[in-house]
Amino acid sequence: MTTLRTVQYVVAFSKKEEAVQGPDNADVVIRIAAKDVELDPTVAFMKGKLKAEGSTRALFEVLWSGEAAAAISRLASHS
């Protein structure tokens, strides 16, 4: 059974400039620096380049489904 989880993605271009997608009260918040968006999100997470706060299950679901890669790519391209 799949439970719908909310995710907020944050791509940081600088300390004061970020692209954000998703609600503030999300189950998991995923952050990555713009300079690291070319990495596969799973690899970035294992290297400590992608940070996550909240539900580990929700994080792994979006990493494995490819949702994280698509969302991060969209946010990074709208700079």
Total individual domains: 1
Q: Tell me the CATH architecture.
A: 2-Layer Sandwich
The shape, in one word, is globular
The average pLDDT is: 92
Query: What structural class do you assign from the helix and strand content?
Result: alpha+beta
Short description:
With 79 residues, this protein is an alpha+beta fold. 34% of the residues lie in helices and 27% in strands.
Can you characterise this structure?
This protein has 79 residues and is of the alpha+beta class. The protein has one domain (7-77): Nonspecific Lipid-transfer Protein, Chain A. It is 34% helix and 27% strand. It has 3 helices and 4 strands; from the N terminus they run E-E-E-H-E-H-H. The chain has helices at 41-46, 56-65, 67-77; strands at 7-12, 18-21, 28-33, 50-54. The protein has a 4-stranded mixed sheet with strand order 2-1-3-4. The mean pLDDT is 92.
Task: Please give a handful of descriptors for the protein shown.
3 helices, four-stranded mixed β-sheet, globular, alpha+beta, 79 residues, Nonspecific Lipid-transfer Protein, Chain A
List the helices and strands and how they pair.
Layout: E1 7-12, E2 18-21, E3 28-33, H1 41-46, E4 50-54, H2 56-65, H3 67-77
Parallel strand pairs: 1-3
Antiparallel strand pairs: 1-2, 3-4
